[in-house]
Amino acid sequence: MSLALKRWTILLFSLAGLLLTVNQTFLFSRAIGVVMNGQTFLYVLTLVFFPLIFLIVPFKRATTAVPGWIDWLLFALSLGGSAFLVAYAKDIVFSSWQFIAPLDAQIVAALLWVLILEAARRTNGWPLTIVVLFVSLYPMFADKMPGPLNSMSLPPAEVAAYHLYSFESVFGIPMRAFADLVVGFIVFGLALQFTGAAKFFNDVAFALMGTVRGGAAHVAVVSSGLQASISGSVISNVMTSGSVSIPAMKRTGFSASYAGGIEAVASTGGVLTPPVMGTTAFIMATFLAVPYVEVAMAAAIPAALFYFGLMLQVDAYAARRGLRGVPRSQLPTLMSALKGGWHYLIVFVVLITMLAQGMNESRAAFYATGLLLVVNQIRPENRLSIAGVRDMIAGIGCGLSEIIAVILAIGMIAGGLAATGILSTLSTELVFLAGDAPIMLLIMGALTSFVLGMGMTVSACYIFLAIVMVPALVKVGFEPIAVHLFVMYWGMLSFITPPVAIATYAAAAIAKVSAIKIGFHAMRLASVMYFVPFFFVLNPALVLQGTPLQIGVAVATAACGVAAISWSLQGYMLGSGAISDTIWGVLLRGGLLFAGLALASPGIKALGITQLECAAFGLALIVLSGLAIRFVPIFQAPETTAAGA
């Protein structure tokens, strides 16, 4: 089959999917009395976008982009299976096929089950596929599992029917969140990429940060954070922003592996950053049954703390090695950058205003996309041609297809557990294990997220823990939105933690260095991400749960704590200088780390220590550390270390 046929198929299916989604969002067909119910729309989205994945990611993708006969066969089978869902949507809903599906429906369910697993393998590799396969098969051997995992088993035909025809598995919360919220924002983010937003963000970041020490790295942090926050895609952001930032960092003295680590971490953090964030944030809003804007607002301060810590680490690294910024003559001015992209700012202001006023999230995203395209066409330098519009539609279709393939798969993680009814039992068991030490349950949640994140996507990891771990954490008294964000943050480590570390592999392709080396740098740079989730779970004021005074105090102390932790990790304290690598320097860095934790602590009730007392102790320890670095030689790094590359 020719490449041209593949391109036209993707374009036509993408166009059809976009038109159907816009119609469902704005209910245009209501004028002629034809409106799809929510479940039927899920099946229609699957029909349009899911089969494309077998053409977008061919079986022999390592050697060719042209689909082979097996890809077209799987495309046809997935198209036929999805069409069956659409044709029998009413029977599925009203005849309880998840329990009593007819034979032909059971066969189609088994076929789609296998196709979804293959789509997950093509898009995210074997780790996720193995996890989904195991959990989706779990109801078949639940009676052989030990302890709280033991439950009544189900025959294979019933398991297949439950996965495809219930509201708890493939077409459960993740897919509903995708249809109701995610599609519009993915369209908006991809439209921004095709209209040149990446260049605008880079130019603004270079104009603002390019001349400071380590300026190219600061540019990478600012630019990547801005881009990833609206694209929601770590990998695409690394490839677009990193193609400019990584070479610039290497030219100004950063090692290739460190430059790749900065880009990978900055792009990963963008998915935690409002206004758009990533797919997981929309799923979270559905789990919490709150408007997405509430999730975005709660995520704002933790994201700011994360980037603040990353910027301080970059500055400390550059200062310790005497790295300089980019000469002003080689940088764009802020006015020229704004002149070339002011319309993006207008679009963001309009989008945020619509969300703040309570408009339906998907409608707001489509309105913003429409405004972007109109304003963009006014400017000759960014104007899309017919070919550009065609490429944008196909690109949006490809992006949605890859996301839907993963979401259908991770839905079976929830389905595999829901089919046996063990979820409430697991939550109770975890609370029992925690006993009188809720912090131990929190640590268990962090470690579980970390381990699962190394083998699963952040969405899959989050959904699994939102079902199993989050209810237990809420039961012991933690704030629900803080707990959901906690799980999401720890799951995000999958992007930068070997062996998965997909963000580092993308950065490695640009930096021309081992992804493992980048991964180790990225883990160190993202160390603040290990601490910030504990900060906001233990002190919910950081996710805007409290009075203005409580929020202000929490933000101030947490910012000082993040600064101390960042200086400890990099061995350099702003205003004092580089810390020696001797045992005395190691002890001082440990003191700074302890000071940072004390500052962000909400207090120790068991010992009668208040938050302000902890903060005062932390600040005193920081001041003493700064004075020691400045005036006591045993704590000072040699001049050669501070100035050398």
From TrEMBL:
Subcellular location per the Swiss-Prot or TrEMBL entry: Cell inner membrane
Pfam families: DctM (PF06808)
Stated name of the protein: TRAP C4-dicarboxylate transport system permease DctM subunit domain-containing protein
GO CC, any one term: plasma membrane
Alphabetical list of NCBIfam families matching this protein: TRAP_fused (TIGR02123)
Topology of this chain in the membrane: Multi-pass membrane protein
Function: Part of the tripartite ATP-independent periplasmic (TRAP) transport system.
UniProt GO molecular function: transmembrane transporter activity
InterPro entries: DctM, TRAP_DctM-Dct_fused
Membrane-crossing residue ranges in chain numbering: 40-57, 69-89, 95-117, 124-142, 173-192, 299-319, 340-358, 392-418, 430-452, 459-478, 490-511, 523-543, 549-569, 581-600, 606-629
Top-level division of the source organism's lineage: Bacteria
Primary location: membrane
Originating species: Maritimibacter alkaliphilus HTCC2654
Domain TRAP C4-dicarboxylate transport system permease DctM subunit: 111-546
The entry's keywords: Cell inner membrane, Cell membrane, Membrane, Transmembrane, Transmembrane helix, Transport
